[in-house]
Amino acid sequence: MLKSTVLTKQFVNRAQSFFDKGCEIRFFMTWISPATSFGKKEFLALQSVFKHHPNGCLMILSRSMDSSAGRQILSPLTARGYKVTALTPDLQFLFNNTPAKAWFDDMKKGRKDPGRIPFAQNLSNLLRLVTLYKYGGVYMDTDFIVLKSFSGLRNSIGAQSVDMETGHWSRLNNAVLVFDKNHPLVYKFIENFAYTFDGNRWGFNGPYLVTRVIHKVSGKPGYDFTVLPPAAFYPVDWIKIVGYFGKPKTRYQSKWIDAKVVQLLGESYGVHLWNKESGKLRIEQGSVIGKLISNSCVICENIYSS
User: Fold this and answer.
1) pLDDT under 70 in the chain at which residues?
2) Can you tell me the distance from the alpha carbon of 233 to that of 217, in angstroms, rounded to the nearest whole number?
């Protein structure tokens, strides 16, 4: 992804042409794995975006999905008129005029250690930030199921956990970000990434980054943002997500599932599936996740084979 190609050079014009089609809301995702790894759960996540934003635009920043294989994966949505595309990003353009440029140059020239954490993972953390800074809109991971419209959200980030004693958030997450173009807080995120990058510590350049930056700027003038409670984007903790994929085995479990679905549909903008924990699980019929996806799909095929 670091190399310049014909497609990277076309990125700016292709992106502008895509957005010129008219977008109620701009959504962005990244995909750094092969197109063959883009599975049924990821496709259900795409569907959930359009279920609640039929006039939105979704751009997937990905070299592998910007291909005939990727277009085939997206074709059930594009054939129905939904505005979704995959583009190979031009990193030089996206990083230009931000602190990411110097970091990028050092990395290409071997002056900075990429570390033990897969470099693509850290690149994804930075790519979402510079894309939001350049274009503005909503970034979300591909393991996030949208449950309601984001149209009322602006300059928002979600808390993952709350201190039980103080009631104040204790950790934020970067799986969902909603920010205007050129937002100063996003610039601070990029700056912190470039100046403190550590490729050996999991989460340091992602969830922990947004947490420490917001700790520093909270209460200072010039930043306009909202920290939403865990119920907004992370209503299910990663430790508990596995149980939300299973079907009910008793009448009590069935009632609990129905009540939980009602609660989530009422309180949450979406549910993060924590793919690292749930990626190999099948969505069982009657499960919380199954019911939520059934409520948030536009094609609604292969839900229970996912």
Assistant:
1) 1-3
2) 22
